Amino acid sequence: MARRTAAGVVTPTSPAQWPAVNGRVRVRVQLPDALGGELLELPTRVEDSGESRLVVAAPGFSGDLHVVAPGMPVTVLWANDRGQMRQDFLIAEVVRRRVPSWDLAPCGEVSVQQRRRFVRVPVTGNLRLHPVPGDPGRSAPGDPAPVAEQPLTAAFVDLSEGGACVRVRRGSWPAQGRAVRTVFEIGDGPVDQLADVVRLVPDAAGTGEHDDLVLSFVEPVAAADRLRRHVMQEQIRNRRREAP
Predict the structure, then answer these.
(1) Which of 90, 61, 95, 102 is nearest to 3 (CA)?
(2) DSSP the chain
(3) What pLDDT is attached to residue 16?
(4) Pairwise CA distance, residues 39 & 74, whole Å
(5) pLDDT tens sequence across 214-232
(6) Least confident of 20-24, 129-133, 145-149, 187-191
(7) 160 CA to centre of own chain
(8) Is the dihedral of CA 193, 196, 202, 204 positive or negative?
(9) Contact at 8 Å (CB) between 18 and 56?
């Protein structure tokens, strides 16, 4: 099945692969040069979907009333069992209501972001996971403040410049698709980085006691250079241990 977008381009639709209603997603929006030219990545959620449209709650950002209009390109990112998914859309309609929404028309194929873009190394140590409270896609003026969830201690399985795999007590983490602040130490100091839980692997350790969470760091990764150096140093140390 295909549709003609607002730009007049016929593209296939992918409703079977889209996240479910109320699913958490992120949208990437390129600001014009007049507003700084920044590439924004904003959390929101799916409001509705159909055979040829995906509706998301409109995330608010500085300058949105001047920028957001039909025909504007948007990239939607979401997590499922295959990994980090993405698809390009055009805004077909902006609906203004108590929770404004964007009606999106697909203009590209669904793709899976390569999970092995960065070298991963086994590491030891713990980190703290702080669930991001509330749901930015549902928030509106006058809504009560979201209740903060308790942070959780996890153990590293591996680490890369772009994410990590961590182990938690079985059943202690609610679901994939959540946003979380990761707080941990590497050789040259602390790291505090926002991440998405792109996959939950039940009982990955085979003990019946733990689950593994695959985390994708949300760009920009402020500590990217430090993480890259740390991973390289761990690689060198591992090779030395394995040398006869």
Answers:
(1) 90
(2) -EEE-TTS-EEE--GGGSPPTT-EEEEEEEPPGGGT--EEEEEEEEEEE-SS-EEEE----TTHHHH--TT-EEEEEEEETTEEEEEEEEEEEEE-SSS-EEEEEE-S--EE--TTSS--EE---EEEEEEPPS-TTT--TTPPPPPPPPPEEEEEEEE-SSEEEEEEETT-S--TT-EEEEEEEETTEEEEEEEEEEEEEETTTSSSSEEEEEEEEPSS-TTHHHHHHHHHHHHHHHHHHH--
(3) 76
(4) 11
(5) 898 887 788 989 999 999 9
(6) 145-149
(7) 16
(8) negative
(9) no
Q: Which residues pair with 211 in a beta bridge?
A: 168, 202
Which residues, other chains included, contact 143 with Cβ-Cβ below 8 Å and sequence gap of 6+? none
pTM: 0.62
d(CA 89, CA 108): 7
Nearest to 136 by CA among 69, 58, 30, 221: 58
Selection from 196, 209, 198 nearest residue 167 by Cα: 209
Cis amide linkage into residue 73, ω under 30° from 0: no
Task: Characterize 144-165 residue by residue with b for buried, 16 or more Cβ atoms within 10 angstroms of its Cβ, and e for exposed.
Answer: eeeeeeeebebbbbbbbbbbbb
Burial of 137 (0-12, 13-18, 19+ CB in 10 A): buried
Residue 182 to residue 226: CA distance in whole angstroms: 15
Record the tokens describing residue 225, joined without a space: 């250079």
